[in-house]
Write a structure and sequence with these properties.
Helix content is 59%, strand content 5%. The protein is mainly alpha-helical and 206 residues long. The protein folds into 2 domains: 8-86, Arc Repressor Mutant, subunit A (Orthogonal Bundle); 101-186. Residues 13-85 form the Transcription regulator PadR N-terminal domain.
Length: 206
């Protein structure tokens, strides 16, 4: 098979099937909405289109019901598993990307009224508190399951980002943004001035 270019959505499909086992598009949609959908936004219609494309490429097998709704169930082929593993091992050169409407509004705030900033900050405080509560409930529900531990690492990153956003909007609402700068000055010595970790990791045995 010639080399094909796979999109992030392709790897979402391959990854979800690798974690969940054989899945219908509806299974994928449910799985995504309770996991990667919290941090990777894309049209869910792709979860109904992309599996067929991956099957044509030999990365998925498909089984179709003989009767009824003739639902399609997809499973990974060895080629699909290899493609997923190569992607996971490849360097991630894309910089962190954030598309936040609240931050966009904040950038243009001087074109509006001062009270808009206060309203924006308080609405964001509410939203980030709600998301933190959702994430914390997931930690409480799944944190004790050893099988879920690898996926809980992503949840910890999500919580760190939500708490960082909550700190910012709370400081903005209270007029204490200068306190955030002082916090960064304290953290700079440990986070920015330490040697960069070895990207190659520990040497493998020959």
């Amino acid at each position: 098979m010639s080399e094909v270019r796979l999109s992030p959505s392709s790897y979402v499909v391959l990854g979800m099937i690798a974690l969940r086992g054989p899945s219908t598009p509806y299974d994928l949609k449910r799985g995504v909405s309770h996991s990667v959908g919290y941090f990777w936004n894309f049209p869910h219609a792709q979860l109904y289109l992309e599996p067929d494309r991956l099957a044509r490429l030999g990365l998925l097998d498909v089984e179709i019901e003989n009767a009824g709704r003739r639902r399609k169930t997809y499973s990974l082929t060895e080629a699909g598993r290899d493609a997923l593993r190569r992607w996971l091992a490849s360097p991630t050169e894309e910089h962190f990307e954030m598309r936040d409407i609240a931050e966009l509004k904040l950038f243009f705030n001087e074109a509006g009224e001062p009270e808009n900033v206060t309203a924006l900050a308080r609405d964001q405080i509410r939203q980030h508190r709600d998301r933190i509560a959702t994430y914390e409930s997931m930690v409480e529900r799944f944190g004790g399951n050893p099988d879920a531990r690898p996926r809980m690492i992503t949840l910890e990153l999500g919580l760190e980002m939500e708490y960082a956003a909550l700190r910012f909007w709370t400081a903005l609402d209270r007029g204490e943004v200068d306190h955030l700068r002082a916090r960064r000055d304290t953290e700079r010595a440990t986070l920015l001035e330490e040697p960069t970790p070895d990207l190659a990791g520990p040497a493998s045995d020959a």
